[in-house]
Amino acid sequence: MTRPTIHAGLLASLLAVWSAGAAQAHSPYLRPNLFDAGRRDHVTVEAAFTEDVFNAEVVMRSDSFHVVGPNGAAPISAVTYLRDLAVFEAPTPVDGLYRLSSGPRAGRAAKMYNTPSGWKMVGEEDTPPPPDAELVDVQSITVAEVYVVRGAPDDAALKPTGQGLELQPLIQPNAIVAGEDASFRLLFDGQPLANAPVTVFREAGLYDGKKIEAETATDASGVVTLRVSAPGAYMTQVRHRTAAPAGSLTPYRSYTHTLTFIADAG
Questions:
Q1: How many CB atoms lie within 10 A of CB 147?
Q2: N or C, which terminus of the chain has less Cβ within 10 Å?
Q3: Pairing state of beta strands 58-59 and 197-202?
C-alpha cells in the first residue's frame, strides 16, 4: 500500500466520524469473539463505531488499547486497522476477569449549547439551535470497554481507575442473567454521578428494528440497575458533558462511555 493510499483511507475514516457527529449516535464499542475464554490464552476483539450495535461502520483508532487483568495492566500495541473496524488479540494468560479497554480517545472539537434539559451538541437535534443560543467549544472523549472471563473470575479488573467516565459493574459481568437485576455504578473522576441518563442498546435490534432495550438513569448514589428481557449481547451508553480541565484544547468536554456485555439465559 502506498503512502497516498494510507492517507486517503485515514482521511475517509476521519470524515466519516466527523460527518456522523453526536446527532447520528455513532457509538464506539469493543466486541470479543468470546466473552468466556475457557482455557484459551487470548481472545480476539473488534473495535469500531456504529449506529447499530454491533455492526461495524467506522474503524476505531486508539493509542491506548489495553487490558487489565489478575496479572496487572498491559498495553495492546499490535492492532490491525481495516477500513470499517480494528482487530487485536487480548491476552488471557491466567484465570480471572479481564477488562478490555480502548482507553480515553480524544475526538473532534465541535460546538454545543445549553438547554433546560442539559447540554446539546450542534446537530444533535432535528432542529438547529435557537438563534439566541450561546455556542461553546467542546471536545469529545470516548471510552469503550468489555469484560472477558477465564476460569473463576476475580475482582481486580472491576476496580475503577478514578479518571474520566466509568461504569463499574457491581456484579461479576459473566453473572448477568436475562430477567434478573444487574447493578452498576457510574463514576466521573472517581465520584458517583447521580441522575445521569443510561441507554442500553440490544444487538437483536439490528434485525428487528428495536435498537433500545432500556432508557433509565442512575440514582442519587450513582447506581443504575438494569434488567434485560432476553439473552444476548447488549451495550450501555452514557454521556456526560462538563467543563474541561485547565489547559485542555476546549473549555468543555463531552465524555462518552460504552460497555458491552452479554446476558445469559440463566
A1: 25
A2: N
A3: unpaired
**Cα–Cα distance, 19 to 17 (Å, whole number):** 6
Three-class SS state of 173: helix
Instruction: Indicate if the pLDDT at residue 244 is higher than 50.
Output: yes
Q: DSSP letters of 114-165?
A: EETTEEEETTSSSSPPPTT---EEEEEEEEEEEEEEESS--SGGGS--SSSE
Confidence of residue 181 (pLDDT cuts 50, 70, 90): very high
Q: What radius of gyration do the chain's Cα atoms show? A: 18
> Looking at per-residue confidence, does 16 or 146 come out higher?
146
- How many whole angstroms separate alpha carbon 165 and alpha carbon 179? 27
Distance CA 79, CA 89 (A): 8
212-239, pLDDT tens digit by residue? 999 999 999 999 999 999 999 999 999 9
Phi-psi region of 13 (alpha: psi -120 to 50; beta: other; left: phi over 0): alpha
Percentage of the chain beyond pLDDT 70 is 91
Are 90 and 42 a contacting pair, CB within 8 Å?
yes
* Predicted TM-score (pTM) of this structure: 0.88
Q: Which residue's C-alpha cell is 458491552?
A: 260
106, three cell numbers: 480524544
